[in-house]
Specification:
The structure holds 2 protein chains of 2 kinds. The N and C termini of chain A lie far apart (46 Å). Chain A is mainly beta. Chain A has no helices and 7 strands. Chain B is mainly alpha-helical. Helices cover 43% and strands 7% of the residues of chain B. In chain B, α3 packs across α7 and α6 packs across α7. The chains are: A mainly beta, B mainly alpha.
């Protein structure tokens, strides 16, 4: 691998603008993460320690609306799509947690028309 | 950004079936529908993580002077439209050819007084993908400079030259056996229209050189050094070979 700087946590969140009040809308979220499964060896024969995202939670104004448990068989840069029905404006939080204390949270204000 | 990218999509689809007697097929057409959808939908395409980075890097102060790419080039969707489709290009001042990554590094050194980024550096891939996206849907348009003609010729010779213990040339698979299978994988025609590309095998974005290196190692040849002229020659030939095909950057491949 080329030398890379300390990784920025990168996410893509799509579908918020298309939300309509009281109607289900599809949200699509991607997190940049290697999802290292702990079974691979590096060039020196040492096992690369497992480092995966284990949990994703989406909350609307603090209330859990979607959650997923992730495991080692999920590929790098996990992509999740789920449906959400919002009755009005609010704040969505997207939170990923994982091995080695990994935690990342994004918040987005939504105002479904 | 997404709205503009979506607006380009019909163009991309139309261009891929432009001419009936053109037997060239993009790698996209050798993939299954699920994978094609992954490339075509910007909300799913994982390469957009890098594009998003490139967008930020474009506007980030770089080097001792804190100069940004945008200070000279302005708004990339306007100023950089169609630019990536013309690379590798001839740089008269240097008397040599440059691919897009080489141009980014030359710009960094010349105008930002910053150190060049190594090949496969995440920032270099991000900027390349961001610039490539500005040409998505446009035809690959290799320039006519005399120096490039010679380089392409050299690349074509390499394309036809047997390599490695397995003693295969590029053309044996990608010209003569495209559409057949190598193990479980369909052999594509090898048109480099979507680089940097998100490859599922890599689980990340990678350059054309990385892809070529995979093939060179695959025929059990020793790959050239990272800065060897052979890579650029092959890239120049591949651009000529794919001339007129739509740019797909950032593509997704198995």
């Amino acid at each position: 691998m080329a030398d890379t700087p300390a990784p920025r946590v990168r996410t893509l969140i799509h579908g918020l603008d298309a939300l309509r009040r009281g109607q289900p809308g599809e949200l699509r979220v991607t997190l940049a993460h290697p999802m290292e499964n702990g079974l691979r060896h590096d060039g020196f024969g040492n096992v690369v320690p497992r480092s995966i995202v284990t949990r994703f939670e989406c909350r609307l104004d603090g209330q859990l609306v979607f959650a997923a448990d992730l495991y080692t068989a999920i590929a790098a840069n996990p992509y999740l799509a789920f449906w959400l029905r919002a009755e009005g404006p609010g704040t969505l939080s997207f939170e990923w947690t994982g091995d080695w204390g990994f935690a990342h949270r994004e918040t987005r204000a939504i105002a479904p028309a | 950004m997404r709205r503009r990218a979506l607006a380009l999509l019909p163009l991309l689809l139309a261009a891929s079936v432009a001419s009936a007697d053109d037997t060239r097929r993009s790698g996209l057409q050798f993939m299954g529908p699920a994978l094609q959808a992954l490339q075509r939908d910007d909300a799913q395409n994982p390469a957009m993580l890098w594009v998003q980075d490139g967008d930020q890097l474009w506007r980030a102060p770089t080097g001792p002077g804190g100069k940004r790419c945008a200070d000279c080039h302005g708004d990339a969707p306007r100023s950089m439209a169609g630019v990536a489709a013309r690379y590798p290009a001839w740089d008269a001042a240097r008397g040599g050819a440059l691919n897009l990554a080489g141009r980014i590094n030359a710009c960094r050194q010349q105008h930002q007084q910053a150190a060049p980024l190594p090949t496969e550096h995440a920032d270099l891939l991000a900027l390349s993908a961001y610039l490539g996206l500005q040409s998505r849907g446009q035809p690959v348009s290799p320039p006519a400079d005399a120096g490039l003609v010679a380089l392409r010729k050299q690349g074509q010779v390499l394309w036809q030259q047997r390599l490695g213990q397995i003693n295969l040339a590029c053309l044996h698979c990608h010209d003569q056996r495209a559409g057949q299978r190598l193990g479980g994988a369909v052999i594509p025609q090898g048109h480099a229209t979507g680089y940097p590309t998100y490859r599922l095998e890599w689980q990340g974005l990678g350059s054309l050189q990385r892809r070529l290196r995979g093939c060179v190692v695959g025929v059990r040849a020793e790959p050239w050094a990272a800065d060897a002229p052979e890579w650029l020659a092959l890239e120049a030939w591949l651009a000529q070979r794919a001339a007129g095909m739509p740019v797909e950057t950032p593509a997704v491949r198995p």
